[in-house]
């Protein structure tokens, strides 16, 4: 049996390749021995390199296991109103496209001035939560009577995300940060997977950025009451759940006010699938199927 | 040559329960030139006497801006203070980078305190022979004066004076304590400079060359130029 190259990855090694079997491989390794340039004639009698896994080389290579997400949450929405900020997510964590975990709270209270909601990898979010817990504990130990406000948390998350991106090992999340800034004004911002960030009166992370924000843009005004804001949020969630296959009809709305953070009970919005165009969705889109 | 057998290192207690090395370091602070700080919730003034190594050298600066809201005055071994000022500035930059915030004076003071305290319980090295007066403001607390000592102690003060002959400055400040609580910046500057001149070498008048002045007001640390200092001195 002719030994064949079994691995192509550079870090694992070239595999077993006797000279002459694979001219391309020979060309690649010609002249690379410690003794200097080796000609084809000398190599002809030499046995192929053994198949080895080079542990040292693997350690040097960047970890790739976290470079694709496994269990993910989809959109997170944030909306300011006159008395505070609202956060909204569904409670689903998908395993690929499977609606696997259906009662996941995707909002975290950081402290009285700040709460965050996430999209993307659930385990990475757990890691970020650990970081924030650590930060809170540090602040508590400092005992100088101050807590990190939402703007600081937002800036901190930006640094964390950008730092991990720079290590080629990004945290697979984007966040909506809601709360109050140092001046005591409502704050609402989003941080992306690679450290991109902006603050606005209303933000959305994930797919909701395309679906919810047009609704926010249309209905947002600075003096929204809480009831109005919740209504807008519900219509945005409705729009999201109708279009996003990774979203489920079980939502939570959290609000950050001067009194602190409260995360609401899960609820559903009435859905409507009887629209005429749903019966033949590609009727007016040539090329669809 | 030695004062006693318990002062050779940081790890040996004296039977009276004292750490002589730390006390020596505190003595070094008393050798330094005078620093005065006083003020109230709205404004704080730092004033310091400068020294020069010899007649041929320039004056050595004693006030350092840490960030836009915080400044620090040092008394004692100036090289030790350089390390601490560097530490403060680095922390300040880090805070600004990571949290987008100007570091508060209390946070910075507690950082210095930690750094100083470590050197009082490790055999390697020695305590820093320097006293710091950190002044600054933050949204939560208003203006603050924080004083550190080589033992790692941090105190929040209304007024303080450290360094050589600082007792007379403190006496002066004590007399004006009530006045200071409601004083405007100009008034506080006058009190600070008078207190400083109390600590000056006998019968010598303060000169703008020999003294340094900085204020913290409306969330801004401002170091005054010699010309500005001269204006205040003329008003005394």
From TrEMBL, chain A:
Any single GO BP term: proteolysis involved in protein catabolic process
Coiled coil: none
Subcellular location: Cytoplasm; Nucleus
GO annotation, cellular component aspect: cytoplasm; nucleus; proteasome core complex
Keywords, alphabetical: Cytoplasm, Nucleus, Proteasome
PROSITE patterns: PROTEASOME_BETA_1, PROTEASOME_BETA_2
Gene3D superfamilies: Glutamine Phosphoribosylpyrophosphate, subunit 1, domain 1
Pfam families on file: Proteasome
Primary location recorded for the protein, binned into one broad class: cytoplasm
PANTHER family hit by this protein: METALLOPROTEASE TLDD, PROTEASOME SUBUNIT BETA
Primary role: Component of the proteasome, a multicatalytic proteinase complex which is characterized by its ability to cleave peptides with Arg, Phe, Tyr, Leu, and Glu adjacent to the leaving group at neutral or slightly basic pH. The proteasome has an ATP-dependent proteolytic activity.
Subunit structure: Component of the proteasome complex.
UniProt family annotation: Belongs to the peptidase T1B family.
Protein name: Proteasome subunit beta
Species whose genome carries this gene: Ostreococcus tauri
Automatic annotation (TrEMBL), chain B:
A Pfam match: Proteasome_A_N
Record carries keyword Nucleus: yes
Keywords: Cytoplasm, Nucleus, Proteasome
UniProt subcellular location: Cytoplasm; Nucleus
Description of how the protein assembles with itself and partners: The 20S proteasome core is composed of 28 subunits that are arranged in four stacked rings, resulting in a barrel-shaped structure. The two end rings are each formed by seven alpha subunits, and the two central rings are each formed by seven beta subunits.
Family: Belongs to the peptidase T1A family.
Function: The proteasome is a multicatalytic proteinase complex which is characterized by its ability to cleave peptides with Arg, Phe, Tyr, Leu, and Glu adjacent to the leaving group at neutral or slightly basic pH.
Identification of the protein by name: Proteasome subunit alpha type
Organism: Ostreococcus tauri
């Amino acid at each position: 049996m002719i030994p064949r190259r079994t691995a192509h990855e550079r870090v694992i090694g070239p595999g077993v390749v006797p000279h002459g079997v694979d001219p391309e491989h020979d060309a690649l390794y010609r002249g690379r021995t410690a003794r200097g340039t080796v000609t084809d004639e000398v190599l002809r009698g030499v046995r192929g390199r053994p198949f080895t896994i080079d542990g040292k080389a693997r350690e040097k290579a960047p970890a790739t296991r976290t470079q694709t997400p496994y269990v993910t949450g989809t959109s997170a929405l944030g909306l300011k109103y006159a008395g505070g900020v609202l956060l909204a997510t569904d409670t689903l964590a998908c395993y690929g496209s499977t609606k696997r975990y259906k009662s996941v709270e995707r909002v975290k209270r950081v402290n009285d001035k700040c709460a965050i909601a996430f999209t993307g990898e659930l385990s990475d979010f757990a890691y970020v939560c650990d970081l924030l817990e650590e930060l809170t504990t540090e602040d508590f130990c400092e005992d100088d009577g101050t807590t990190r406000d939402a703007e600081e948390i937002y800036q901190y998350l930006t640094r964390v995300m950008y730092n991990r991106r720079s290590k080629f090992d990004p945290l697979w999340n984007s966040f909506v940060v809601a709360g109050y800034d140092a001046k005591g004004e409502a704050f609402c911002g989003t941080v992306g997977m690679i450290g991109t960030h902006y603050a606005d009166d209303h933000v959305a992370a994930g797919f909701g950025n395309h679906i919810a924000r047009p609704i926010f843009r249309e209905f947002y005004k600075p003096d929204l009451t809480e009831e109005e804001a919740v209504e807008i949020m519900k219509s945005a969630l409705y729009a999201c759940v109708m279009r996003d296959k990774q979203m489920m009809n079980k939502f939570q709305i959290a609000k950050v006010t001067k009194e602190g953070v409260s995360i609401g009970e899960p609820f559903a919005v009435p859905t409507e699938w009887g629209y005429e165009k749903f019966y033949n969705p590609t009727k007016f889109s040539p090329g669809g199927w | 040559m030695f004062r006693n057998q318990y002062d050779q290192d940081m790890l040996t207690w004296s039977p009276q329960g004292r750490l002589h090395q730390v006390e020596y370091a505190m003595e070094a602070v008393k050798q330094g030139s005078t620093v005065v700080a006083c003020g109230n919730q709205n404004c704080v003034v730092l004033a310091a006497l400068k020294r020069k190594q010899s007649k041929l050298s320039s004056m050595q600066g004693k006030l350092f801006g840490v960030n836009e809201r915080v400044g620090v005055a040092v008394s004692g071994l100036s090289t030790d203070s350089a390390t601490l000022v560097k530490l403060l500035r680095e922390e300040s930059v880090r805070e600004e980078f990571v949290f987008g915030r100007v570091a508060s004076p209390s946070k910075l003071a507690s950082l210095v305190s930690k750094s100083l305290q470590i050197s009082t319980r490790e055999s390697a090295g020695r305590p820093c022979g320097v006293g710091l007066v950190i002044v600054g403001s933050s949204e939560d607390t208003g203006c603050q004066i924080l004083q550190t000592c080589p033992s790692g102690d941090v105190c929040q003060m209304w007024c303080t004076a450290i360094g050589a002959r600082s007792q007379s400055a403190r006496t002066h400040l004590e007399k004006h304590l009530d006045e200071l609580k409601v004083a405007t910046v100009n008034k506080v500057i006058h009190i600070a400079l008078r207190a400083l001149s109390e600590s000056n070498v006998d019968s010598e008048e303060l000169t703008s060359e020999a003294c340094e002045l900085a204020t913290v007001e409306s969330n801004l640390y401002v170091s005054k130029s010699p010309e500005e200092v001269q204006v205040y001195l003329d008003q005394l």
